[in-house]
Specification:
The protein has 11 helices and 10 strands. It is an alpha/beta fold and about 270 residues long. The chain has 2 domains: about 210 residues, Alpha-Beta Complex (2-enoyl-CoA Hydratase, Chain A, domain 1), CATH 3.90.226.10; about 50 residues, Lyase 2-enoyl-coa Hydratase, Chain  A, domain 2 (Orthogonal Bundle), CATH 1.10.12.
């Protein structure tokens, strides 16, 4: 499945069981406005319709920047109109929040690949993923307090879970950006790659997800998430139950045989 119409603010392609969502408003630095938020939810409708066949989702962006946050021009147009500001921004934030919640709820791995700026709502979108890969020119900034605003898109929930409460509050209060290596050291980013390697990295990650075992990848994500919110005793039991369930499936059979034969596995589920 491919959705690549020129001018659409969000694109979707699906190949070999891996979906790629692309923010596609590079001329506006992929800022979040009503069309962008609506299009993101429309593409997520398509992702959810295909979820039983998917092994992963990559969230990427066209242009120099991943996403610079909310559309300041839209905010400016609503200044001095309290009711229009409340209703307009309320609808926009609701759509953004819905998209973030839907990304977070996907059962398969979600990886964001961030170049340039991930600011405000753009940072929240990146943090909705399970894993963030950053280019060496990436920078991450809250941005909200500079506007006299507070986070949206789940930023106040997701950022402290990645970097801790102290650094999250510092980033909010003072808007000091984290560069790619600082973000990696803080736990916000899993890996840093060169800007020139962004496309190759995207393709490699898509291929590796496609070659993996869907049941194992999904179950591993679920276990790690649940493990952060449960006791060791519960985690041990959950691991045992899940391992035994997967051990009866064909992918486990193939994985064990491939390991013994010193060859890559060819999973079919």
């Amino acid at each position: 499945m491919t959705n690549q119409k020129t001018g659409e603010p969000v694109l979707l392609s699906i190949k070999d069981g891996v979906a790629i969502l692309t923010l596609n408003n590079a001329s506006q630095r992929n800022s979040v406005n009503a069309p962008m938020a609506a299009a993101l939810n429309q593409r997520l409708d398509e992702v959810e319709a295909a979820r039983a066949t998917l092994k992963g989702l990559l969230l990427v962006a066209e242009g120099e920047h991943f996403c610079v946050g909310g559309d300041i021009r839209y905010f400016e147009a609503l200044l001095g109109q309290p009711e229009a500001m409340r209703s307009g921004l309320g609808a926009l934030i609701s759509d953004l929040n819905r998209a973030v919640a839907r990304i977070d709820a996907l059962p398969f791995p979600v990886i964001a690949l961030v170049q340039g700026a991930a600011a405000g709502a753009g940072l929240s979108l990146a943090l909705a993923s399970d894993i963030v890969i950053a280019t060496d020119d990436a920078r991450f900034v809250m941005a909200y307090s500079g506007l006299g605003a507070t986070p949206d898109g789940g930023g106040s929930w997701s950022l402290p879970r990645r970097v801790g409460q102290q650094l999250a509050l510092y980033m909010y209060l003072f808007n000091d950006p984290l560069d790619a290596e600082q973000a990696r050291a803080a736990g916000l980013v899993a890996k840093v790659v060169s800007r020139s390697a962004l496309q190759e990295t995207t393709q490699t990650l898509a291929q590796r997800l496609a070659q993996g075992s869907r049941p194992a990848q999904n179950a591993g994500k679920a276990l790690i998430r649940r493990g952060m919110q449960t006791s060791l005793e519960s985690a041990l039991q959950n691991e045992k139950s899940q391992f035994l369930e997967l051990a009866t499936q064909s992918d486990f059979d193939e994985g064990v045989k491939a390991f013994g034969q010193k060859r890559p596995p060819h999973f079919t589920l």
